[in-house]
Amino acid sequence: MYKGRGQIGNAFIRWWTGSQYSHCELVVSGWCYSSSMMDKGVRRKLINMDNDKWDLIELSWADENLIRSYFYETDSNEYGWLGLIRSQLFNRGRTQTGAQFCSEWCANALGLPNAPSYSPSSLANQISYINSKHI
User: Fold this and answer.
1) Order of strands, edge to edge, in the sheet holding 41-45?
2) What's the predicted TM-score (pTM) here?
3) Mean of the per-residue pLDDT values for the chain?
4) CA dihedral in degrees (36, 41, 47, 49; nearest 10)?
5) What is the C-alpha separation between 107 and 120, in angstroms, rounded?
6) What is the pLDDT of residue 46?
7) C-alpha span between 93 and 51 (Å, rounded)
8) What whole-number distance in Å separates Cα of residue 106 and Cα of residue 94?
9) Sequence-separated (6 or more) residues with CB below 8 Å from residue 96
10) Is the pLDDT at 73 greater than 70, yes or no?
11) Which side of the chain, N or C, has fewer Cβ within a 10 Å radius?
12) Are 2 and 14 in contact (CB under 8 A)?
């Protein structure tokens, strides 16, 4: 979960959601998987997960092979601006075909229901809840 300062979009997401988080990634074998505004869509990337900018949450229940597989299915997807606006600003929960925003992509990759409803903050809360049940 990204808590660094970032850019204006990060500040807006933190303000809108009332959270310290503005972006999320799934880390598998050192690679970060997500959909990124800056990279214009779904991508795999090496990122320095500096502790003052990131909170890392262990996902012992997550299936790394499913995450990788989902990445290969969606690698050409663009960043989901329309889905982000519909689901996060207008609470419509509709997906945008061929495009996803970060928390939507991560929730889908983890197999969580209603993926467009998650912000980085609500995804962190859901993951923490799931972790509490799997310990």
Assistant:
1) 26-28, 31-36, 41-45, 78-79, 99-100
2) 0.93
3) 93
4) 30
5) 10
6) 97
7) 32
8) 16
9) 80, 81, 82, 83, 86
10) yes
11) C
12) no
